[in-house]
Specification:
The complex is a heterotrimer of chains A (about 300), B (about 260) and C (about 325). Chain A has about 300 residues and is mainly α. Chain A is about 70% helix and about 5% strand. In chain C, the strands form two sheets. Chain C has a two-stranded antiparallel sheet with strand order 1-4. In chain C, strands 2-3 form a two-stranded antiparallel sheet. Chain C is an all-alpha fold. The chains are: A mainly alpha (about 300), B alpha/beta (about 260), C mainly alpha (about 325).
Chain lengths: ~300, ~260, ~325
């Protein structure tokens, strides 16, 4: 029984952090039709900035509980700086090019960002461990978990709910949904598609950075982390369906649980199992589990 | 009088739109049939079903007695039914000659499956391509990249490619649309001349009534997925319903005895 | 027509020149060249796929299979002293064959996909291999295996002549691969690649199977990647799971875009250029060479979308 519980809880925790990372990726694809390979690097940026902030904070012996605010702060900073910079400074010159060409453009951005990180922070690992244990532990079926991890799940759910609410209840959100549905018609209807793009990319970047910020206290912040996570995010959004928010949620849960099961029972197949599931889903549902209906061509 | 193509009870709907409503039509070998009707009347849907791009909701299509309803375009082409497209479907980054060579190359590769083109050999491909270029007066464009060519030339190439396969039935979807008024007859003359040597059954969709009356010996008028008239050109073009739904009252009535231009 | 004949001439001249000239080059250059040529083979296959309208972000799968195949089979079946574990010609060829068989099977699935989904699915399969390799001790786990060779086509080679011999093998294999691909692209089936890229609907309507064309080209690309993997493994003397990691595949895509699809020589030359610049950049600016790559990629996409090769290609026949 404890076995099942530990698989479930670990799975949900992992799913939560996957969701936060992947939802931004799927949103950007849904609105802009760009599969952003640099998403992982933005996640890494979030982690590094967080590590810097946290290091500074605890280095000056400031109130430890307030340090939690540094995490979303880092995400916002990275989002507001990197987001518009990349979108306005580079991507907007590429719109209209083939989807695959845009993927290559984001791949180029990934390469650039990887070195930006190395230049700014070097290659040694950083840590931001302090907030992790700060809130203490609790037990589920006799197994110890940190309150931090519980917080991660809450944040993930909160992000999902907030995004859904914004998209379906607010005017700005509905404009976004319109653009997701049909870019050309939206523009013809007078929607400022360009601004929607900038906002979407910035929000997506913030979410990626938030994922990195939240993970920073749990892991060693290293240069390879962006590159490692992007393939996981791909698996999630492809399983869930590119551009679908509920898809990202479902995909995260699936990948999280699959990985958790593997880690607990057959650790050798941890990575293999995730991609195996991705391939499996693609075989039966080529466009993912929740995918938009496709218009006919001739 | 042999029926080469027979569609029976074809029905096709897209949601609330009925594109084919119990279509029943038999086409005689070597005849030239015009398909007329307003936009959305079901002409292209009919062609799409005959060529296997769409599956009818119900009904059957027989070709030379054989049921082809569920076959894919590839197989139907191999059996000898080819089509051209409303919007030319070409290989835009290749030259005109390369487009033809590609088409002929396919025939060579799939030689065993092609009903009518089994005599084409690999080393004969260049000659056939050049001969086709001459026949369709495309020779001056032979090395031009297709993507940059004027619409009339692209249309001709689109039709030429459908013909190199030596089909028994050729379906032309609006062969003269998008082409200037003075080029229309030129293109139709060209196509009919080129087809004269072979025995081909031709069906073509056309909006220009002058062209339809000049080149066909039978017209099918479509409206809302049904065939509302099926007769010789004079009869159809003077038909009250056709005048109401397709041609419009202001078009002058067809002259008696409007003969088909290209004798077969 | 003229451009293509030029490629043929170039290949025929390059073969003896490279073989002879290689003898005079310092060891580190020969080594670099083998690496570049091996990777060039992978890019050659990738370029064929791009001509068919597909970008694979997972050629690392076959690259890795090609490198691992011979030594893995040898270790598992305890064929330690056989030709499979020590021959510089047999090992890459075996790798290519294994890659081909896997591609034949996977192709049934992958040939149904296009664009981003093809890219993602190919990436997924390469990561599946990566995931398997890092955790399976019998296949070396994340450490991998060391490889070496003693013979070429059964003929024993003195240790002093090994590097040049490997180089010669690389040059010959690349020559034949490029020649074969060049001829293939001029054949009726080979010509269909670009037709599929341009207009799949028309290809089907002309009576050919798009899936068949994609499948065939997918297998060819895999065989080339496997061949390259086998060579690179021998060149480095070591194989490890990183060969299947997605960033390895990404590098191949980069070089393919750099060279463009204009000629069979383009991927080889682009690969040589890339390896040269990469090793220089790595030495002098280890923290900025990726940035340089990224910026170069952007520049090529923006200003030379047909790759560097388009600079050399004559536009005589374009209207």
């Amino acid at each position: 029984m404890t076995d099942l519980v530990s698989v479930l809880v670990d799975g949900i925790i992992y799913s939560s952090y996957l969701f936060i990372i992947s939802v931004g990726l799927t949103l950007i694809y849904g609105v802009m039709k760009i599969l952003n390979m640099a998403h992982g690097s933005l996640y890494a940026l979030g982690a590094y900035v967080t590590a810097t902030f946290v290091g500074f904070w605890f280095g000056h012996n400031l109130n430890p509980y307030v340090s939690f605010l540094l995490l979303p702060l880092a995400a916002v900073v990275v989002g507001l700086v990197a987001g518009p910079l990349i979108e306005r400074g580079l991507l907007r010159f590429m719109y209209g090019k083939d989807e695959i060409v845009l993927v290559l453009v984001t791949y180029a951005i990934l390469l650039i960002l990887e070195d930006v990180i190395k230049l700014a922070w070097g290659v040694e690992s950083y840590s931001a461990y302090q907030p992790y244990g700060l809130l203490g532990n609790f037990e589920v079926a006799g197994l110890p978990y940190t309150v931090y991890d519980a917080l991660l799940v809450v944040v993930a759910i909160g992000v999902g709910v907030a995004l859904t609410w914004v998209l379906t209840r607010t005017r700005q959100g509905k404009l976004l949904l319109a653009v997701i549905h049909d870019r050309e018609v939206s523009a013809a209807m007078g929607i400022n598609v360009q601004r929607v793009y900038t906002v979407t990319f910035t929000v997506g970047t913030m979410l990626a950075a938030l994922g990195g910020a939240l993970i920073a206290p749990k892991v060693s912040v290293v240069p390879a982390m962006g590159v490692d996570v992007i393939v996981l995010a791909f698996a999630v959004v492809v399983i869930g369906g590119l551009g679908s928010l509920p898809g990202a949620a479902l995909g995260s849960v699936i990948v999280g649980l699959v990985r958790s099961t593997a880690v607990h029972h057959m650790p050798e197949v941890e990575l293999f199992s995730i991609y195996f599931v991705m391939a499996l889903v693609l075989i039966f549902r080529p466009k993912g589990l929740f995918s938009a209906a496709e218009a006919r061509k001739i | 009088m042999t029926t080469i193509l027979h569609a029976r009870g074809l029905n096709k709907s897209f949601g609330a739109v009925t594109a084919a409503n119990n279509i029943d039509v038999g086409v005689e070998r070597d005849s030239i049939v015009g398909l007329i009707g307003g936009n959305g009347a079901g002409k292209t849907t009919f062609i799409n079903m005959v060529t296997g791009y769409l599956k009818p909701d119900s009904g059957t299509i027989h070709y030379e007695g054989r049921d082809i309803t569920s076959l894919v375009p590839r197989s139907i082409t191999q059996l000898g039914i080819c089509r051209s497209f409303q919007i030319p479907q070409l290989f835009n980054t290749l030259t005109v000659r390369e487009n033809l060579l590609t088409a002929l190359g396919i025939v060579v590769i799939e030689r065993k499956k092609f009903a009518s083109a089994s005599t084409l050999r690999s080393d004969g491909v260049d000659a056939v391509a050049d001969e086709t270029l001459e026949r369709f007066r495309l020779a001056e464009y032979r090395n031009h990249v297709v993507g940059f060519l004027p619409e009339g030339v692209r249309k001709l190439l689109d039709i030429a490619m459908a013909m190199v396969v030596k089909p028994k039935i050729l379906l032309l979807d609006e062969p003269t649309s998008g082409v200037s008024a003075d080029e229309k007859f030129f293109i139709m003359d060209m196509v009919m001349d080129a087809l004269r040597a072979d025995n081909v059954t031709i069906l073509f969709v056309e909006h220009d009534m002058d062209i339809v009356s000049r080149y066909t010996d039978r017209i099918l008028a479509f409206y809302e997925g049904r065939i509302i008239a099926d007769d010789v050109p004079d009869a159809v073009l003077n038909n009250a319903e056709v005048r109401k739904y397709v041609i419009g009252e202001s078009h002058p009535p067809a002259a008696a005895g409007g003969a088909r231009h290209a004798a077969h | 027509m003229i451009a293509r004949d030029r490629t043929l001439a170039m290949l025929l001249i390059a073969l003896p020149v490279c073989l002879a000239g290689g003898w005079l080059l310092p060891a580190w250059v020969q080594s670099l060249l083998v690496l570049a040529l091996g990777k060039g083979l992978v890019v050659l296959g990738l370029v064929l796929l791009m001509r068919t309208g597909l970008v694979s972000f997972g050629q690392g799968l076959y690259f890795c299979l090609g490198a691992y195949a011979a030594v893995s089979v040898g270790k598992i079946f305890k064929l330690d002293n056989s030709i499979l574990m020590s021959d510089a010609l047999v090992m890459p060829l075996f790798g290519a064959a294994v890659a081909g068989v896997v591609a034949l099977v996977l192709g049934f699935l992958l040939a149904r996909y296009r664009a981003i989904f093809f890219a993602m699915l190919s990436l997924a399969f390469s990561m599946i291999l990566y995931g398997l390799l890092i955790k399976i001790p019998a296949l070396g786990s994340s450490d991998g295996f060391n490889i070496s060779f003693k013979t070429v086509a059964g003929v024993a080679i003195a240790p002093a002549a090994q590097l040049y011999t490997l180089y010669a093998v690389a040059v010959v294999l690349v020559f034949f691969a490029a020649l074969a691909l060049h001829q293939y692209l001029r054949s009726h089936l080979g010509r269909l690649a670009e037709a599929v890229r341009d207009n799949e609907l028309r290809v089907e309507y002309m009576g050919s199977s798009v899936r068949y064309v994609v499948h065939v080209n997918y297998v060819i690309a895999a065989v080339l990647a496997g061949l390259g993997g086998g060579l690179v493994g021998l060149s480095i003397g070591h194989v490890d799971p990183d060969l299947a990691y997605w960033t390895t595949s990404g590098e191949f895509v980069f070089v393919a875009v750099l060279g463009g699809t204009g000629s069979v020589a383009a991927p080889i030359i682009a690969s040589l250029l890339f390896e040269a610049i990469k090793s220089a950049a790595y030495q002098y600016t280890p923290y900025t060479w990726q940035m340089v790559l990224g910026i170069s990629l952007l520049l090529v996409i923006m200003f030379l979308p047909a790759g560097l090769w388009s600079v050399f290609q004559r536009r005589a026949k374009r209207a």
